[in-house]
């Protein structure tokens, strides 16, 4: 007791001093309270602590903490920067009343959720408030008008809903307003035209609608305005031409209609104008030539008509001119070639005609030229690469003639050259040794002669080479072709090439060889075993002899092997039956003998894969003993004669189909047929009859539903999907279908072929009996974890193939559990891949991106579609993990505590027994959460996902 009396005064003094310290330093106390509300997984605020002992200097403890800025005396907190610290949690806002002198608050690039606390508007001295790239949600709170000193307000990329805050227009000193990238709906308030000092306005990427308010034209101080990627009504107000200081205007992807107001030519300070991906009509105002500072003009993906104004020759600062995907016509004015700053010229998918200006490239440093899918004629301008930086030259689907310009060999900067589907002739004047960076060349569907250049092996970066359908090309495949270290695709079909197939000494990257319908002879080199990446080999319709090499069975990725219509002999290697990747084998119309091996993979190919080999027997052909006994020696001879005659007929049919298979302008009723590997080549009429009673090629069969089942003349059963397109969209749509048809993977449902005319197409898919149904039917049934893990891996492999192995990538577009079907081994197959994206291409303006877009060879808005695929994959994973309990849960799952979610999923999967199973579940859940994050750029690629799934488990 005496000791207590002795210590009591001391304890009392300590308590008083402590109270005084805390009372003297409310900033540190408030920040510690703020820290308690935040989730700090990286311990970024680890130094936020009050040391033991007093504070004799009277300074604020927090002035030494990371992210805290104080005045010179360290007595007042004037700035708080918590950006990029991986912080989460919710904010109450109760602490902000302490920071009366705070000038700058930066919470950007974190994962803070919930509503934005209204208490933040107590910081009345704020000049800069940055809450961008978080996950704040709900309606925007009222009260921001109290921040009368605010100059910068950045709320980009959050999840706000409701309407735009009107009272922000009362901030007289505000210069930067960024409310882009949320879910804000309603119209832009007319009050937004009353800002006094605003210089930067960004409202893009929301759900805004209604008419654009003409009052925005009163913004005399704004230099930068982005209000696109919304869905407005009506046209562009002509009053926008009164924004006299405007330098950057972006209203892309906004559903705008009507003509482009000529009053925009009054924007004499304008440098960038982006109006692409709308429904604008009429002509381009010739008055735009008065906007002399203009550097970037993108009017693509609209319905603009008429020619390019001759007056554009005055735009000497123009770097980007993008008019692609419109209905423009006429010739390209010669003045365009005189623009000294021009770098990118995108005119694809219009109706331009005539020749390109002779001097194009002579006066500027062109980097990218895409004039594909027009009616251009004449030669390639001889000086198109004079600037020395041309990387992409895209000319396909025009009427160009003459020889390919020899000057292209001096174009050392060239990366991609696409000149297919023209009428170029003569020898290919390319010196590959002078093209060190070339990766992609497509010269198919022309009239080239003189063979493949023999120095092709010197193009060390070449990945894709296609010279197919040049029937007079001739020559041989150069002996060192396969040695190209990065070569993935080599296509030289229908080129009258002769000689032997070169030895495969080096072919580490080679994935696709297509050399059908030539005069190749000799044997298939056994060195093909070196091609461990080979996925598709098409040697059909040649004169190849010898046996089918056993070495083909050692190729782990081989999915398609077409050796039909050759002179091969011997037996089918039984080892091929061990291949887990083989999807298609076709050895029809050869001299193969013996019995078809009994493995299941051989039976699954159907009889069409083996017909035309009179010495071959066994399932799915006739049984060996019965057929041989019945025929006898004379019967065999007669059968050989009949089959030879059939082979001649088939060859005639193949030649006819190859003549029409590539897309030409015919009358509306003209039907064409394209067969991919796996579908015997026959006429479109055969296909139409298989699901329609009509026998007329001009009639339009109409299956009762969008998907029907049909049996083709050879007995193959297919699923048929119908798609309609406008005449102008046919070429783009059929190009995507061709890529879909060439996409072969064991986790994809195969597209076997399609027949089409100018406004309608029928896609023929592999018909799967589906003994195990689809994933939607399975998720609510009890499945063991190994089966679930196998399903997740199979889906990932199929999706990764579409994203990473197809070039350009093919988005699935509609990944969901009902579009994932199972074979008898519970191996998942992705159905409907690419179809939704195909509908977008066929019916609407083709998806594109902003002014950084590349070329018309494929849609660069593709990234958005791929990100959506990954999000959908994450949702499918959650559905699998929870036995169907969580469906379409990607948006809501992020706010749930990880440990609670993991515990629930472990219970769903009865995972308490084994540690390795728990680790796998944890990994798969983490992948699902990464895939469904709200920010697309933070989602992993499918390639990264496969790496995660294949990493060793502890």
Question: What number is the mean pLDDT?
Answer: 84
Q: Give the low-confidence spans.
A: 1-24, 626-668, 693-705, 846-854
Quote the beta fraction: 15-25%
Give the CA-CA distance, first to last residue. Answer: 59 Å
Number of strands: 51
Q: Report the CATH superfamily of the domain at 773-845 and 858-953.
A: Transferase(Phosphotransferase) domain 1
Provide the CATH architecture of the domain at 773-845 and 858-953: Orthogonal Bundle
What is the highest CATH level, the class of the domain at 773-845 and 858-953? Mainly Alpha
Largest sheet: 23 strands, mixed
- Alpha-beta classification: alpha/beta
Named CATH topology of the domain at 773-845 and 858-953: Transferase(Phosphotransferase), domain 1
Helix content: 10-25%
Instruction: Estimate the global geometry from the Cα principal axes.
Output: globular
Alpha carbon gyration radius: 33 Å
Separate helix tally: 13
Task: Using brief descriptors, characterize the structure shown.
23-stranded mixed sheet; Leucine-rich repeat, LRR (right-handed beta-alpha superhelix); five-stranded parallel sheet; single chain; 954 residues; 51 strands
Structure description:
- Pfam families: LRR_1, LRR_8, LRRNT_2, PK_Tyr_Ser-Thr.
- With about 950 residues, the chain is an alpha/beta fold.
- Helices cover about 20% and strands about 20% of the residues.
- Among the domains are: about 25-130, Ribonuclease Inhibitor (Leucine-rich repeat, LRR (right-handed beta-alpha superhelix)); about 160-330, Ribonuclease Inhibitor (Leucine-rich repeat, LRR (right-handed beta-alpha superhelix)), CATH 3.80.10; about 670-690 and about 705-765, 2-Layer Sandwich (Phosphorylase Kinase, domain 1), CATH 3.30.200; about 775-845 and about 860-954, Orthogonal Bundle (Transferase(Phosphotransferase), domain 1), CATH 1.10.510.10.
- The chain is built from 13 helices and 51 strands.
- It is globular.
């Amino acid at each position: 007791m005496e000791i207590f009396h002795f210590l009591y005064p001391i304890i009392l003094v300590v308590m008083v001093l402590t109270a005084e310290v805390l009372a003297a330093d409310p900033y540190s106390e408030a920040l510690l309270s703020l820290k308690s509300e935040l989730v700090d997984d990286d311990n970024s605020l680890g130094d936020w602590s009050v040391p033991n002992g007093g504070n004799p200097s009277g300074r604020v403890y927090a002035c030494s903490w990371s992210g805290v800025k104080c005045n010179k005396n360290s007595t007042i907190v004037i700035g708080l920067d918590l950006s990029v610290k991986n912080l989460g949690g919710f904010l109450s806002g109760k602490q902000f009343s302490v920071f009366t002198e705070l000038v700058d608050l930066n919470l950007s690039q974190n994962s803070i959720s919930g509503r934005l606390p209204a208490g933040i508007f107590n910081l009345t001295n704020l000049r800069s408030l940055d809450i961008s790239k978080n996950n704040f949600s709900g309606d925007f709170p009222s009260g921001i008008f109290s921040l009368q000193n605010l100059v910068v307000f950045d709320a980009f990329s959050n999840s706000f809903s409701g309407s735009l805050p009107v009272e922000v227009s009362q901030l007289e000193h505000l210069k930067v307003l960024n409310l882009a990238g949320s879910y804000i709906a309603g119209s832009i308030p007319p009050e937004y035209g009353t800002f006094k000092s605003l210089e930067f306005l960004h409202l893009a990427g929301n759900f805004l609608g209604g008419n654009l308010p003409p009052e925005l034209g009163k913004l005399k101080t704004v230099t930068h305005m982005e209000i696109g990627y919304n869905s407005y009504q009506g046209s562009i107000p002509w009053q926008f031409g009164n924004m006299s200081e405007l330098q950057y205007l972006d209203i892309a992807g906004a559903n705008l209609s009507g003509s482009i107001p000529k009053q925009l030519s009054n924007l004499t300070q304008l440098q960038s104008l982006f109006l692409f991906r709308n429904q604008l009509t009429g002509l381009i105002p010739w008055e735009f030539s008065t906007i002399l500072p203009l550097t970037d003009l993108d009017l693509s993906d609209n319905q603009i008509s008429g020619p390019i104004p001759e007056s554009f020759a005055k735009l000497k600062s123009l770097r980007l001119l993008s008019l692609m995907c419109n209905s423009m016509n006429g010739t390209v004015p010669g003045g365009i070639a005189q623009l000294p700053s021009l770098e990118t010229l995108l005119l694809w998918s219009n109706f331009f005609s005539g020749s390109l200006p002779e001097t194009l490239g002579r006066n500027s440093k062109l980097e990218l030229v895409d004039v594909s899918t027009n009616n251009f004629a004449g030669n390639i301008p001889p000086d198109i690469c004079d600037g020395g930086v041309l990387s992409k030259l895209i000319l396909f689907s025009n009427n160009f003639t003459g020889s390919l310009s020899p000057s292209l060999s001096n174009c050392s900067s060239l990366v991609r050259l696409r000149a297919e589907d023209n009428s170029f002739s003569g020898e290919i004047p390319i010196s590959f040794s002078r093209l060190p960076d070339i990766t992609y060349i497509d010269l198919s569907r022309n009239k080239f002669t003189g063979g493949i250049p023999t120095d092709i092996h010197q193009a060390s970066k070449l990945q894709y080479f296609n010279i197919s359908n040049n029937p007079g090309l001739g020559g041989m495949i150069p002996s060192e072709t396969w040695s190209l270290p990065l070569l993935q695709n080599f296509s030289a079909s229908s080129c009258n090439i002769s000689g032997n197939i070169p030895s495969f000494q080096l072919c580490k990257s080679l994935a696709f060889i297509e050399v059908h319908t030539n005069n190749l002879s000799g044997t298939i080199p056994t060195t093909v075993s070196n091609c461990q990446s080979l996925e598709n080999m098409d040697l059909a319709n040649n004169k190849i002899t010898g046996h089918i090499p056993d070495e083909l069975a050692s190729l782990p990725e081989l999915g398609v092997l077409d050796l039909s219509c050759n002179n091969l002999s011997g037996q089918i290697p039984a080892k091929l039956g061990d291949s887990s990747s083989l999807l298609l084998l076709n050895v029809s119309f050869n001299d193969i003998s013996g019995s078809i091996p009994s493995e299941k993979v051989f039976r699954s190919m159907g009889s069409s894969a083996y017909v035309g080999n009179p010495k071959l027997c066994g399932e799915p052909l006739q049984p060996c003993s019965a057929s041989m006994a019945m025929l006898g020696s004379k019967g065999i001879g007669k059968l050989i004669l009949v089959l030879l005659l059939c082979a001649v007929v088939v060859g005639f049919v193949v030649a006819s189909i190859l003549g029409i298979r590539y897309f030409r302008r015919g009358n509306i009723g003209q039907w064409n047929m394209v067969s991919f590997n796996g579908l015997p080549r026959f006429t479109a009429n055969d296909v139409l009859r298989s699901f329609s009673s009509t026998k007329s090629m001009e009639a339009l069969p109409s299956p009762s539903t969008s998907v029907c089942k049909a049996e083709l003349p050879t007995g193959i059963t297919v699923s048929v999907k119908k798609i309609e397109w406008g005449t102008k969209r046919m070429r783009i749509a059929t190009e995507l279908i061709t890529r879909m048809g060439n996409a072969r993977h064991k986790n994809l449902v195969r597209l076997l072929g399609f027949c089409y005319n100018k406004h309608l197409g029928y896609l023929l898919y592999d018909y799967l009996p589906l003994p195990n149904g689809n994933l939607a039917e399975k998720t609510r049934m009890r499945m063991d974890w190994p089966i679930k893990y196998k399903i997740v891996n199979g889906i990932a492999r199929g999706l990764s193939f579409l994203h990473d192995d197809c070039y350009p990538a093919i988005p699935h577009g509609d990944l969901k559990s009902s579009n994932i079907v199972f074979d008898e081994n519970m191996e998942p197959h992705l159905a409907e891949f690419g179809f939704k994206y195909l509908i977008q291409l066929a019916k609407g303006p083709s998806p594109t991106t902003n002014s950084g877009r590349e070329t018309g060879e494929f849609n660069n808005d593709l990234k958005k579609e791929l990100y959506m695929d990954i999000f959908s994959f994450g949702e499918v994973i959650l559905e699998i993990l929870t036995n169907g309990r969580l469906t379409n849960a990607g948006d809501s799952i992020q706010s749930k505590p990880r440990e609670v979610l993991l515990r629930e999923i472990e219970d769903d999967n009865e995972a308490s027994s084994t540690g390795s199973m728990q680790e796998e579940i944890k990994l798969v859940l983490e992948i699902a959460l990464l895939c469904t994050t709200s920010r697309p750029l933070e989602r992993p690629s499918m390639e990264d996902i496969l790496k995660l799934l294949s990493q060793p488990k502890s």
